[in-house]
Design brief:
Largest sheet: 3 strands, antiparallel
Number of strands: 6
Order of helices and strands: HHHHHHHHHHHHEEEEEEHHH
Oligomer: single chain
Helix content: 55-70%
Strand content: under 5%
Distance between the termini: 180 Å
Structural class: mainly alpha
Length: 494
């Protein structure tokens, strides 16, 4: 029996019957009547074969149970089923309904199995996704914990750094305060040392002067005791002013006088120049013209002072050469005399000469009702400084400048309204102070592109002819009495 059942399973007749039924069900609507009948007959034949095998297995199974084994089952299930199948057509329809219900139930079970398998697969996928999500969440939580730890560490370090920076700032402030106090103390000490050095230098100069005067007195005493053929010259030298100077004092004080004059020149630029500029702005609205006037006044002042110094030096040399005697050279004696008697310099004559030169200068113009005498204070100070600078060794002078020259960084600063890309000087604001070819103090100049061409086109309309004679204010100043220089009065030669 087991062999028959195995052969039935291996024959796959039941599976072929199921496949034929499904194929017939799919093609039933499109098949013809004969084709459907043939399909039905094939299925019946195949079913009969399966039933024959089943009945064979049923017979063998009943034999294995004995003579009376399986009688009850045959009576209750097989015989009623056989009787029902061959009874009537109604029974056939009931069988068909039962068969269709069986097929429907099989189909539903198959769908349920597929749905269950799909749900199981989806559930597995969801579980896998849930597991991966939990892993990601765990990783994110770990990263968050690490980030929080790093943030706390950073906060701690930043607080520590801030405290250290505050401590360092406090220490730096204290050190800065201490250094400033030390610097102020050092400056005070330096100032005191400079004062001491100046006092020592003054005392040394006085000692030298006293020694020189002592030697002069001794020489005069010796000459008065013994007859000398140069008595006439000694008498002629007595015509000089009673004030005398120490031989070589001008050279010994050259450094200190040079520093004072350079400082004074810078003060004139910072104070008197600005005062003159403010005064001129009340009469002239053109700032360029105001600056040109001041610059030309400075140039003319130096020129007039140098000319006056040369004339003054010639007169002093002529006077001292008649009675000069002693270890010092005549030039040193002349220079010492000029340094000690700079108050004999007729500065008003130089001021008048500067104003006369400015009146005929074609580069500048001025309202006809006002004269250049309004800036006589600036001119007077420049003339005095320029005259004193000629007594230095070597003398100081200003740099020669012309409109349109190549701008020199070593000589001039650019003014605030300059074009810093321009290479040529449009006009000068203040001259540079020179010692031979070395710049001591830089001047100031204005550089602009195209300024020279526009200036040339306007020069003919802007400039006005000024007479060389002084104006009303200048005439008033000229009318004032001035004390003549002692060197102008009489000369032993004359």
């Amino acid at each position: 029996m087991a062999d028959s059942l195995r052969r039935l399973v291996c024959a796959e007749s039941c599976r072929a019957l199921q496949e034929k039924l499904e194929s017939w069900y799919r093609d039933y609507e499109i098949n013809s009547c004969d084709q459907n009948l043939n399909r039905c007959c094939e299925i019946i034949e195949l079913n009969s074969q399966i039933q024959g095998q089943l009945f064979t297995i049923l017979n063998e199974t009943s034999r294995e149970g004995g003579h009376y084994a399986g009688v009850e089952t045959i009576k209750t299930r097989l015989l009623p089923w056989l009787g029902t199948c061959f009874s009537c057509a109604t029974s056939g329809r009931h069988f068909e309904d039962s068969f269709s219900l069986t097929q429907d139930s099989v189909e539903k079970e198959r769908q349920l199995r597929e749905l269950a398998s799909n749900q199981t697969f989806q559930l597995q996928e969801l579980q896998e996704e849930l597991t991966s999500t939990r892993l990601q969440l765990s990783n994110v939580q770990q990263d968050l914990a690490k980030t929080q730890l790093a943030l706390e560490d950073t906060k701690t370090k930043s607080i520590t750094t801030a405290l250290a920076a505050e401590d360092e700032i406090v220490q730096l402030k204290a050190a800065l305060k201490t250094s400033r106090a030390q610097e102020e103390d050092a400056l005070r000490k330096l100032n005191r040392m400079n004062d001491y050095e100046q006092q020592i230098q003054i005392l040394r100069d006085e000692i030298t002067i006293l020694d020189a005067q002592n030697s002069v007195l001794q020489s005069r005493l010796a000459r008065s005791r013994s007859p000398s053929p140069r008595r006439s010259e000694i008498k002629s030298s007595s015509l000089l002013p009673s004030r005398s100077c120490s031989p070589g004092r001008a050279r010994r004080t050259n450094t200190s006088r040079r520093a004072c004059l350079i400082t004074r020149f810078g003060d004139i630029y910072a104070q008197e120049r600005l005062d003159a500029e403010t005064l001129l702005r009340t009469y002239i609205s053109d700032m360029e013209m105001v600056q040109r006037i001041i610059y030309i006044a400075a140039v003319e002042s130096f020129s007039a002072a140098k000319m006056a110094y040369r004339q003054f030096k010639i007169r002093v040399r002529d006077t001292l050469s008649l009675g000069h005697s002693g270890p010092e050279s005549l030039e040193d004696t002349v220079l010492d005399y000029i340094v000690r008697h700079e108050d004999l310099y007729d500065v008003q004559a130089s001021v008048n000469e500067v104003i006369r030169s400015m009146n005929i200068n074609p580069k500048i113009s001025f309202p006809p009702e006002i004269d250049f005498i309004v800036i006589s204070t600036l001119i007077r100070e420049l003339c005095r400084v320029a005259f004193s600078m000629q007594t230095l060794f070597p003398p100081l002078d200003i740099a020669f400048g012309t409109d349109g020259e190549l701008f020199s960084e070593t000589k001039y600063y650019r003014s605030f309204d300059s074009d810093f890309t321009a290479l040529l000087v449009a006009y000068h604001v203040w001259p540079a102070l020179m010692e031979k070819d070395v710049v001591i103090l830089k001047g100031e100049a204005v550089t602009k592109r195209g300024a020279l061409w526009s200036r040339r086109s306007r020069s003919s309309s802007r400039g006005r002819s000024r007479s060389s004679s002084p104006g009303p204010l200048l005439a008033h100043h000229l009318s004032r009495s001035r004390s003549p220089s002692p060197l102008r009065s009489t000369s032993p030669r004359r």
